[in-house]
Amino acid sequence: xxxxxxxxxxxxxxxxxxxxxxxxxxxxxxxxxxxxxxxxxxxxxxxxxxxxxxxxxxxxxxxxxxxxxxxxxxxxxxxxxxxxxxxxxxxxxxxxxxxxxxxxxxxxxxxxxxxxxxxxxxxxxxxxxxxxxxxxxxxxxxxxxxxxxxxxxxxxxxxxxxxxxxxxxxxxxxxxxxxxxxxxxxxxxxxxxxxxxxxxxxxxxxxxxxxxxxxxxxxxxxxxxxxxxxxxxxxxxxxxxxxxxxxxxxxxxxxxxxxxxxxxxxxxxxxxxxxxxxxxxxxxxxxxxxxxxxxxxxxxxxxxxxxxxxxxxxxxxxxxxxxxxxxxxxxxxxxxxxxxxxxxxxxxxxxxxxxxxxxxxxxxxxxxxxxxxxxxxxxxxxxxxxxxxxxxxxxxxxxxxxxxxxxxxxxxxxx
Length: 415
Prior knowledge:
Elements (H helix, E strand, L loop, with lengths): L8 H14 L2 H15 L5 H9 L9 H15 L6 H5 L5 E5 L2 E5 L4 E3 L7 H14 L10 E5 L5 E5 L9 E5 L8 H6 L5 H12 L4 E5 L5 H9 L8 E5 L11 E5 L13 H8 L6 E7 L3 H9 L7 E5 L6 H11 L4 H11 L2 E8 L2 E13 L4 E9 L3 E2 L3 H10 L6 H4 L4
Helix pairs in contact: 2-4, 3-4, 10-11, 11-13
């Protein structure tokens, strides 16, 4: 019997190289992505899994590896790509990409995330695909976009040369489940006694503004407080980008519209506030006052619409009157008239800030007209770490007069 050929292992070895190459995850993912684009196949989790299974050598993939690869491809084609796992983390509120560096915020400030991009071109393609999913254009002719993804995530992207070391990509997550006050207490945003105060403000139908810096939790707190509104009341929301989703049975929302590619079709918040007044609101809410629409909001709250609310960017509670003045001037409202409108329309200011431990309610204040010119000033009623303040008794009296319970945190100042 002749001996076995010594060259037999050669062909086997030659075949092993291509097999390993065919099963390389990045290569398989690239082929599947190209096939979806070329064939125009509808991207669904099931269709992606089928496409991966159809790849040569896929039978050698284990179930875990195959599903992981399918998730990656689906994210590249329909989701946020390599950023999808970060956005899915319930602790993450913001994901930021500078060039190829990724940063995230879990409520305790920004921290660097592991690298997931290999080149700026990869970030650019992801940003353009996300913009296209919002029906928006992002290219050299229009190098920036501010939009809302189908799942509610807020998208902002800037491309070079506007972005000097970009592309830059900013994503703010949207959680479908609104927080309850007990959730905010557990997270340390409010204390148990302060939660009682916030409930009393809603029960008393006092109009309030929530102020704070970017990412301080204004929308989260407003969402939570609106969930406390009685179920037989109608809430009308006016927002630049729909972010508020209170847990309430009767909520309708109006969202501003930006110009199309031809530069027409803009519908601003001011016009939406005027439309909202015709929709029989029990509570009128402007998601964020950032321009002349503050004049329309003040006018609306002075026509019998109690319990209205809104948010406002401000560094400190004492800066709010000046901030409102600046916005009022954009709407052509003189300073004395603006302060008269504020005094009559809004009673309470809730200010938030970012602390080393996370987002916290820093102060609850009253907006009180003072002096010969009756200019509105901010008078604290409660402050973090100090408890009841000079205006505590006034706020307690306002709650009692409107049939709401006097919260324990103000009881010391009640007389």
